[in-house]
Specification:
It contains 2 helices and 3 strands; from the N terminus they run αββαβ. It has about 80 residues and is of the alpha+beta class. It has a 3-stranded mixed sheet with strand order 1-2-3. Helix 1 crosses helix 2.
C-alpha cells in the first residue's frame, strides 16, 4: 500500500465519480506500517455537506477493496 498505488486507484476509480460533481480528493499521508491513509476532500467536495458520507460510502470501500491491509481511512 504505497502512496503511488493509492493515487492510481483514486485516479482510476474515485476521481471520475467525484469530478462529475466538481469535486476531488487528495492523498495527504500514507502510513504503511499502521495501515493508515489520510485524505483531503477538495474542490466542490471540500464544502459539500455530504463529503463525509461520500468518504465512508464510496471512497473508503473502494480503497479497502483494493488494499485489504488498510486499517484506517481519515480525512483532514
Amino acid at each position: 500500500m504505497k502512496k503511488e498505488d493509492i493515487e492510481k486507484v483514486l485516479k482510476e476509480q474515485v476521481r471520475p465519480i467525484l469530478g462529475e460533481h466538481g469535486g476531488s480528493v487528495e492523498v495527504v499521508d500514507v502510513d504503511e506500517e499502521r495501515g493508515r491513509v489520510v485524505l483531503k476532500m477538495v474542490s466542490a467536495c471540500a464544502s459539500c455537506p455530504m463529503a463525509m458520507q461520500t468518504m465512508r460510502n464510496l471512497i473508503e470501500p473502494i480503497l479497502r477493496e483494493n488494499f485489504p491491509d488498510i486499517q484506517q481511512v481519515e480525512t483532514v
